[in-house]
Amino acid sequence: MYLWKRDLNEKDLKDLIERLNENASLAYHIIVSFGDCDFEKFALEKLGDFDKIVSCRIFGTATEIHFRRLNDSTFRTVVTSESKLPGLDNMESKDLEVSNNKSYYLWGKKLDSKTWFETRIPRLLPYPLDAPEEFVKLKAVEYRNKESGLVEFIRFNGIEGEGEEGREEEEGK
């Protein structure tokens, strides 16, 4: 696993995202803003107004950009990747144990082709998934400290659908 971290202003962060988007098959983003959370297929123009973003995760199969607001003009930015990325100076290699194929169920049960519903959340949940399954899982890779076994990083790497049978199987474990 390779790791790069910096505190960036908005302009430098946008430049970084544009550069990485050219090389790193970024597929989805989760944007948390004041009073909202959007999970969509990634498109640079959908990031919109950075003034409202509290945190964001942009990810694909091998790379994730994760940033969160520190103050009005600075974002703590962390890039994790399976390989060293061009244009990121001082990207360090971390010797961590990799736990592939992790997944986390997201809230809601499918209503129609793009909408899920959860009674505990006062709005419909659109997920960027083109699949007939009832439930949605966020796929991830966990990186653990080899000595302690504790998770140090989680890198999102995709989403997938899950049918009722798979969910019942998972709950029975």
Give an overview of the whole structure.
- With 173 residues, the protein is mainly beta.
- The protein folds into two domains: 2-93, no CATH class; 97-171, no CATH class.
- Helix content is 13%, strand content 49%.
- It has two helices and 13 strands.
- The chain has helices at 10-23, 164-171; strands spanning 2-8, 26-33, 36-41, 53-60, 63-69, 75-81, 92-93, 97-105, 109-112, 115-117, 125-126, 135-144, 151-162.
- The chain has a seven-stranded antiparallel sheet, with helices on one face. Strands 8-12-13 form a three-stranded antiparallel sheet. A three-stranded antiparallel sheet has the order 9-10-11, with no helix packed on it.
- The model has no long low-confidence stretch (mean pLDDT 87).
Strand order of the largest sheet: 3-2-4-5-6-1-7
**What is the domain total for the residues?**
2
Low-confidence blocks of residues = none
Estimated radius of gyration: 17 Å
From the N-terminal CA to the C-terminal CA, the straight-line distance is 29 Å
What is the ordering of alpha helices and beta strands?
A: EHEEEEEEEEEEEEH
Main sheet summary: 7 strands, antiparallel
Tally of individual helices:
2
Instruction: Let me know the number of strands.
Output: 13
Fraction of residues in H or I helices: 10-25%
Outline, from the CA principal axes?
globular
State the secondary-structure class: mainly beta
| Residue-averaged pLDDT | 87
| Portion in beta strands | over 45%
